[in-house]
């Protein structure tokens, strides 16, 4: 017992923490990126607060950029300065990991600084105590001054502990609330209707489009992205895929945008048309049926003219930056930094990401389960979506688990590795591809499905959709959208006129944005 008490009395205090130092550097860069250059001075940050010399050197570089160059530092500009000034001891990989540690609220910066200052105080107190222990008989040591210094350090640390709450001492006034509402932006029209009400994309929030494998989750995201891009010429749309290769996404989006029937398999024809580039001899290793299908397309002059016109329009959207399509395999932290940088440079107003279950945290081993990891991923992206300066609408694809066997199984609890998706999401829309329904040839089964969908008869060429959640409003609304599988086009019932299906008229939902909102004011 005596030995255990002696060990407890000799417990060592933590004197430095590299994670805290990296957090301070990362959140300092973040604060400056939001325009708060005064964060450095408000926090009274100095080099001697850092224990690790590499972190201290990196802090000097960041401070010089803020004070002397008045620049908002980021990983790229910091690396440029390190190389330009010939600063040694800092590798490019270190800059990225130590400055992209965190994207989030500015208040986190002050909390990390408080911890950093407390650790520095402990180191100084230890040094003073060691000096007193070694030289207590030395007449040059002023014990009272040493004790006074330690006490002052504690006062400073206590004061800093409460400084992070200063933005919350007073409530926001009416003008501040108005500023926030204006900055948040308006709901975005999609042109899809559930009864008389329209599906809207809420600003600064997470929306999830959920479906089982093969039930048009990606196709619906593509249709949504193109509808927003066409309805809002001032908006810049970013579509990120974690699932399909870049060239496949381009082919699928071009196919949907063109909405021109080209042959038996539109995607194969577009792929071969792009590869051939006007010369059939460029086509290698394609089947005879694919070759014949493409040759028949070339002989159809009207389809050629219509498709070429649409193809030029599509790539014009890309060249103008209104539509940005990317394939990435970023961790969630890197994805957040990328979207923030795109927002900061004005390259993105709305993001579509396919799909959430393919995202990973930077350090996966610290989570007890995949559900815990996905929960942390959703929280991080929710924080990004609602951020005061760089927040934006984020629309995710998500998958149902294998328990979903019919449209009746479209429940939030059946979302694969659900984590906190149901709680964090503003809106959840579930999809069911009616072509996939088991026993769809049975008259009894078809009548049962039609009754559930609220339709007079079962339509296999349709997408059944159900609102599982919409924050602040009722859920449970359903709709059945006509689906043109060969061109990847999901229509609203109001779009499905012969002229619009053939591509000679724009969907009327684009012509009038004043329809009733399903998800907001």
Secondary structure elements and their pairing?
Blueprint: H1 2-9, H2 18-33, H3 39-42, H4 53-67, H5 75-84, H6 92-99, H7 107-134, H8 143-163, H9 174-184, E1 188-194, E2 197-201, E3 206-211, H10 217-231, E4 237-241, H11 246-258, H12 266-276, H13 288-299, H14 301-319, E5 323-327, H15 332-344, E6 350-354, H16 370-385, E7 394-399, H17 421-424, E8 427-433, H18 443-453, E9 462-470, E10 478-484, E11 489-490, H19 498-501, H20 508-511
Parallel strand pairs: 3-7, 3-8, 4-5, 4-6, 6-7
Antiparallel strand pairs: 1-2, 8-9, 9-10, 10-11
Short description:
The protein has 521 residues and is an alpha/beta fold.
Key structural traits:
single chain, 521 residues, alpha/beta, DNAb Helicase, Chain A, Rossmann fold, 2 domains, nine-stranded mixed beta sheet, two-stranded antiparallel sheet, 47% helix
Q: Give the strand order of the largest sheet, numbering strands 1, 2, ... along the chain.
A: 5-4-6-7-3-8-9-10-11
Number of strands: 11
Termini Cα gap: 68 Å
Main sheet: strands, sense, barrel? 9 strands, mixed
Q: Return the CATH topology of the largest domain.
A: Rossmann fold
Number of helices: 20
Runs with pLDDT <50, length 5+?
1-12, 103-107, 497-521
Any guess at the CATH architecture of the largest domain?
3-Layer(aba) Sandwich
Kindly give the count of domains.
2
> What is the CA-based Rg, rounded?
29 Å
Secondary structural class = alpha/beta
The pLDDT mean sits at 78
Beta-strand share of residues: 5-15%
Which CATH class of the largest domain applies here? Alpha Beta
Helix share bin: 40-55%
Determine the CATH superfamily of the largest domain.
Answer: P-loop containing nucleotide triphosphate hydrolases
Shape: elongated
């Amino acid at each position: 017992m005596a030995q255990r008490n002696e060990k407890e009395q000799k417990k060592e205090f933590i004197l430095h923490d590299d994670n805290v130092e990296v957090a301070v550097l990362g959140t300092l860069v973040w604060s400056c990126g939001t325009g708060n250059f005064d964060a450095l001075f408000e926090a009274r940050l100095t080099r001697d607060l850092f224990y690790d010399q590499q972190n201290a050197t990196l802090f000097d570089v960041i401070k010089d950029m803020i004070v002397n160059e008045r620049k908002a530092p980021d990983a790229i500009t910091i690396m440029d300065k390190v190389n330009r000034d010939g600063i040694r001891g800092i590798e490019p990989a270190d800059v990225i990991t130590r400055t992209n540690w965190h994207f989030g609220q500015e208040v986190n910066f002050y909390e990390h600084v408080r911890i950093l200052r407390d650790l520095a105080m402990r180191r100084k107190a230890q040094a003073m105590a060691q000096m007193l222990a070694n030289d207590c008989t030395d007449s040059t040591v002023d014990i009272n001054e040493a004790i006074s210094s330690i006490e002052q350090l504690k006062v400073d640390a206590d004061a800093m502990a409460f400084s992070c709450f200063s933005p919350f001492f007073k409530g926001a006034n009416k003008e501040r609330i108005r500023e926030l509402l204006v900055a948040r932006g308006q709901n975005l029209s999609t042109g899809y209707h559930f009864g008389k009400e329209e599906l809207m994309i809420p600003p600064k929030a997470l929306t999830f489009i959920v479906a089982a494998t093969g039930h048009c989750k990606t196709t619906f995201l593509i249709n949504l992205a193109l509808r927003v891009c066409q309805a809002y010429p001032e908006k810049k749309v970013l579509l990120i895929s974690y699932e399909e290769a870049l060239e496949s996404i381009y082919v699928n989006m071009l196919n949907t945008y063109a909405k021109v029937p080209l042959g038996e398999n539109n995607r194969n024809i577009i792929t071969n048309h792009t590869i051939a580039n006007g010369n059939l001899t460029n086509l290698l290793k394609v089947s005879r049926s694919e070759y014949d299908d493409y040759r028949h397309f070339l002989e159809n002059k009207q389809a050629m003219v219509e498709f070429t016109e649409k193809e030029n329009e599509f790539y014009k959207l890309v060249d103008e930056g209104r539509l940005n399509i990317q394939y990435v395999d970023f961790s969630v932290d890197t994805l957040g930094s990328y979207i923030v940088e795109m927002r900061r440079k004005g390259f993105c107003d709305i993001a579509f990401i396919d799909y959430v279950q393919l995202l990973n945290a930077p350090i996966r081993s610290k989570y007890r389960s995949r559900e815990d990891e996905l929960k942390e991923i959703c929280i991080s992206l929710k924080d990004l979506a609602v951020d005061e300066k760089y927040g934006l609408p984020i629309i995710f694809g998500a998958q149902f688990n294998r328990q979903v066997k019919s449209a009746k199984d479209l429940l939030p609890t059946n979302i694969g590795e659900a984590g906190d998706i149901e709680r964090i999401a503003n809106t959840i829309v579930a999809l069911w591809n009616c072509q996939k329904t088991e026993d769809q040839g049975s008259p009894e089964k078809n009548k049962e499905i039609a009754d559930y969908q609220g339709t007079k008869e079962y339509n296999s060429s349709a997408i059944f959709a159900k609102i599982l959640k919409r924050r602040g409003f009722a859920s449970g609304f359903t709709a059945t959208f006509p689906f043109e599988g060969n061109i990847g086009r999901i229509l609203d019932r109001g779009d499905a006129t012969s002229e619009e299906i053939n591509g000679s008229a724009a969907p009327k939902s684009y012509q009038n944005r004043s329809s009733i909102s399903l998800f907001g004011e």
